[in-house]
Give the backbone structure.
Amino acid sequence: MAPRDTSRAASPGVRVRGAQLAYAGTRLFDDLDFDLDGGRITGLLGPSGVGKTSLARLIAGLTEGAEGSVADSDGRALGGRIAYMAQQDLLLPWLSARENVLLGYRLRGTAVTGEVRERAQRLLERVGLADAADARPAALSGGMRQRVALARTLMEDRAVVLMDEPFSGLDAITRYELQALAAELLAGRTVLLVTHDPLEALRLGHRLLVLSGRPARLDASVVEPPDAPPRDASAVAHLQGQLLERLAAARAATA
Amino acid sequence: MRVVRPLLILLGLLALWQGAVWATGAPRYILPGPVSVAAVLAERWGQLLHHAGVTVAEILLGLGLGLALGIASALLIASFRPMRRWLLPVLVVSQAIPVFALAPILTLWLGYGIASKVAMAILIIYFPVTSAFFDGLRQTEPGWLDLARTMNGSRARILWHVRIPAALPALGSGLRVATAVAPIGAVVGEWVGASAGLGYLMLHANARMQVDVMFAALFVLGVFAVTLYFAVDLGIRRAIPWQAEERG
């Protein structure tokens, strides 16, 4: 598979219609509609337990017992076009950083050609890990491990990337650096960024959504961040207070 | 210190043993001292070695076959859900019936030779290996499986590249337990009926009140069992280096 930089400009949107999901007798979603804009980053906020992760997993096809349709903006199925990045790095401890980046090839049984190898190397360089490519995860710091996970996500070269609080386990400075790097490397893809951090959403999202209530509803009439991500923290600082108040109200509505 | 400490422990134990002989004044046919046992070792090493060879063969064969059987069973149970209902009860039964009670039957069926002892060893290690490996296969980090599914991995490839490596530390624990108990199976088998082996030699010596020979056989068995355990432990740690790394 050749690197397909051209595909990015044409990343499709994602359309979820009539999503239904109950968990332990509680209805999380009831006839929920949800859209992701093609080629843009959508930040999804909301109180814990409202179903942000469930929504991301539903789009990824990882929830059992969910109903509703998930398709791209042209109505075609999304199977095989989604990459998933979670809060835990999910690196396999017995593989080196490079082998972890190439995990998808191993699992699909696709040959790792010289070209593929080179692309993995370039990605490792982009995330600043060229020297640690042969190290096993245990030898890497939390921030480095999450960089490997980011490289692995990008290696899959999928049009749609679902990120579930990918940086929440990191210290503030590492998180800040990785956010900028992720926004740069994910440019042009359709991204759902689930986060509980208002600043993260404001820095990275083209558009912000708040999920609240039970069953959950989406609210798009939140704050509108200026210009294109990644933004400096100072550029969005004034919006943070506004957003926090919206989230506090969302939590009250969900409890 | 890594070499000195075990030696010191060994010397301490020997001193304790000799001290017990002096303190109790027990006669040689009840509790022989380390010196007289050492004399037997020096005198009869050829005979001891011959019997030890038989027992070692039984233990190693039992361990190898039991391990293979346990791994295969665990993979079957973990891969095919319907198999679980059929194989799990067999697994429990294999552990619930005391192997010692089966020994006479196995000897009756398989004879006085090595086969009945190997079967005993297999029976005794089958459960720890199978249950440990099955537990490991069942408890794969769910996030890894989700990730593998979004990468469009097939079930077989996910099993081979994710679930089996992830279960290796658990299999290692099972193998450690198996290594520790395998000699029990072999020796008990020899007690019930055999024509060679350290267990046979001990019974034989017991009948002739050659308690020092019994102790010498026990010593040889102990040395082999401990050596085997540490060799297996080292092998496991070499085979799964990431386990120690992860613990940091």
Q: What stands out?
A: The longest helix of chain B spans residues 155-192. Chain B touches chain A at residues 141, 143-144, 146-154, 157-158, 161-162, 165-166, 168, 240, 242, 245-246, 248 (CB under 8 Å).
